[in-house]
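User: Structure tokens for this complex, please. No commentary.
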Amino acid sequence: MSAQTERPGLGYPALVVVAGSLVLATIYWAFMRAPFEMVMGAAQKIFYFHVPVAYSMYLGATACCVGSILYLYNQSEKGDAAARAGAEVAFLFGAMTEVSGIIWARPIWGVYWSWEPRLLTALLSTMVYAAYVVLRNFAGDGEAERKFAAALGVLGAANLPIIHYAVQKWGGNHPAVVTGKGGGLGHPDMKIAFALGMISFTLFTASLVWARARLHLARARIERAEERALELGLLGDEA
Amino acid sequence: MNLSTTTLQPDTTPSGAPRVTGFSAGDAAQDPMRNFGFTVSAYAIIWAMLVGFWLLSWRRQRALEARLGEVERSLEKAAPARAPASKN
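Assistant:
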């Protein structure tokens, strides 16, 4: 066994720097270049992060689904780590989507919450990934728990297209600016701010999934090393 | 029930306004800064959550890598020394 811990290459720091720079560019464009919206005023600026954050939840959930399938197929340690990382990121961004949406709804709709299809299905997904995170953190790390979580990770992804199409199929009051057939984003600087937000959060999500997956792989390696140390009598039972 | 043709909810906001399908730029807004407090709150909470998560992950990763290095080094030192003893 090598005593060297795995050193990250330049890929991860470069990804973080590029993502961080683009996030700063998004903030600049959203607040300094994009004009105020005619009806919503300053509250519309929440849009430039609310939608990319929701999209990031989709990305995390997709990573969780793909990792779960890999784990169910060949019990891959990397697949399990990716699934766990994806679920954590999906939960984080799901919660951020809910919070930013609630705050945006208050001045525009007059209420913090409305029981409409997209809000409800998005909340459901957030709760699925919250359940996944709780399961993995508190129910042990045996094969049965991993397989159960992987099944949850695969089934949880089934809700993603439902969230996306809920607003078109079942009505409701959620804005349909990006995928709707209305006016969309009416100013070029609004489009640039939104595009920057989508790109920066895609990269930021990738960096978070990468970091969390490395964390889980490191934890698995430690457990294996400690098991070996116990077999050799190098560590006490408390290890 | 055919969900593809059934609209379960009216396409209006709780205040009765029609669903928004486009954002229009305009200086005609009455006091565009009137909801700025909500915007600041949303951004502050989003970034606090994101930075908190990132910092926790980074600290955890550093601690785990340090622990892994220690375990692996102690194994590497001790294993060759114990191997001949196990033959007796």
